[in-house]
Write a structure and sequence with these properties.
Structural class: mainly alpha
Protein name: DUF6480 family protein
Number of helices: 1
Pfam families: DUF6480 (PF20088)
Number of strands: 0
Distance between the termini: 82 Å
Keywords: Membrane, Transmembrane, Transmembrane helix
Shape: elongated
């Protein structure tokens, strides 16, 4: 296990001031095990019935309006 803050004097590849020489890989950083709070429950996938009905209703009204416009232009 690596320490969260490695000792700079003993870390290979670091230049004075903490920089990394070109071509070198920087030292690994510490990690956190686990999370600080429980994850929320997964939301249901897909669409609910009401939004689909509303969208289909709007599409139907637009189609009826377009047919009425075409009928008015022809007639």
């Amino acid at each position: 296990m690596t320490t969260p803050d490695p000792e700079p004097r003993r870390t290979p590849g670091l230049e004075p001031g903490g920089g990394v020489a070109p071509g070198e890989t920087p030292p690994a950083e510490g990690s956190i095990s686990g999370i600080s709070h429980p994850e929320p429950p997964e939301l249901r996938k897909g669409w609910a019935a009401m939004p689909l009905v509303l969208i289909m209703g709007v599409v139907l009204l637009v189609v009826i309006g377009l047919i009425a416009m075409v009928a008015a232009l022809i007639g």
